[in-house]
Amino acid sequence: MAALLAARSATRLAVLAGDLQPAPLRHAQRHWLHSTLSAASMKVYPVPCLKDNYAYVLVDETTGQAAVVDPITPARVAEKVRELGVDVQYLLTTHHHWDHAGGNQEFTQLYPHLRAVVGGDDRIGALTQKISDGATLTIGTIQVRAIATPCHTTGSISYYCTHGTDEHAVFTGDTLFLAGCGRFFEGTAVEMHASLGKLAQLPHETKVYCGHEYTSSNLAFAQYVEPGNQEIARRIKWGQENAVTVPGTIGEELQTNPFLRTGEVSVQQATGETDAMAVMGKLREMKNAF
């Protein structure tokens, strides 16, 4: 086993400073991956970046194929890829902001065999495949569907990933945070309400992988809005015990995220509004000043 590991490492990226190019996996290595990894499933590996960002490595354990999401620190993400020994097929970009797309060019230099750099906005660096709402792609046996979620930026895309009928994950960038949502930089409350509404319709067990570690401050605001919500209190206690809070689930968000609860009387009372769009706008104003 030690010899196999050594051979595999020798053909992968020798990442010291993030400036060497990886070779594609050879046939024997693909067979090793297929025969030694656990039964068919989808795994996601968060990679903390910058001050509070997350990049992700999405892996299909059946084939060893993978995608990376928002690799803003390319060397660190490449090191995780090397550690996992996977074959990166796609770079998925949630939106054009520098702290998400700013590493694309360097990452594609490290992985020139990438099938595509995918995103929904022409402002994304190194973009080779523009994707629209409802479009799909596959990573091994993982199915990926683009969900257009404009507001934080006009071209924001969330990536809904499924493996069979039992495994669900969504990469939401800066649209949906755990217990919060992104600022309305290029959109309106109406657009954010619609975008979050799409995500709210995903299966409750869907794991949510967002772009930043903002959960603690978001939960503090959520408790301010709904002080009697015991699920928020539970999540706050849990968050105090976990430095990395991703992933959450859609079901948890529906119970604790005020931006997904604009129809709840308790949230409406906190904002002084009853129309869902007005509640959304008021919540964002309140959170900006919180």
Automatic annotation (TrEMBL):
<keyword id="KW-0378">Hydrolase</keyword>
<comment type="pathway">
    <text>Secondary metabolite metabolism; methylglyoxal degradation; (R)-lactate from methylglyoxal: step 2/2.</text>
</comment>
<dbReference type="Pfam" id="PF16123">
    <property type="entry name" value="HAGH_C"/>
</dbReference>
<comment type="similarity">
    <text>Belongs to the metallo-beta-lactamase superfamily. Glyoxalase II family.</text>
</comment>
<protein>
    <recommendedName>
        <fullName>hydroxyacylglutathione hydrolase</fullName>
        <ecNumber>3.1.2.6</ecNumber>
    </recommendedName>
</protein>
<keyword id="KW-0479">Metal-binding</keyword>
<dbReference type="InterPro" id="IPR032282">
    <property type="entry name" value="HAGH_C"/>
</dbReference>
<dbReference type="InterPro" id="IPR001279">
    <property type="entry name" value="Metallo-B-lactamas"/>
</dbReference>
<feature type="domain" description="Metallo-beta-lactamase">
    <location>
        <begin position="52"/>
        <end position="212"/>
    </location>
</feature>
<dbReference type="GO" id="GO:0046872">
    <property type="term" value="F:metal ion binding"/>
</dbReference>
<dbReference type="GO" id="GO:0019243">
    <property type="term" value="P:methylglyoxal catabolic process to D-lactate via S-lactoyl-glutathione"/>
</dbReference>
<dbReference type="InterPro" id="IPR036866">
    <property type="entry name" value="RibonucZ/Hydroxyglut_hydro"/>
</dbReference>
<keyword id="KW-0862">Zinc</keyword>
<dbReference type="InterPro" id="IPR035680">
    <property type="entry name" value="Clx_II_MBL"/>
</dbReference>
<dbReference type="InterPro" id="IPR017782">
    <property type="entry name" value="Hydroxyacylglutathione_Hdrlase"/>
</dbReference>
<dbReference type="Pfam" id="PF00753">
    <property type="entry name" value="Lactamase_B"/>
</dbReference>
<dbReference type="GO" id="GO:0004416">
    <property type="term" value="F:hydroxyacylglutathione hydrolase activity"/>
</dbReference>
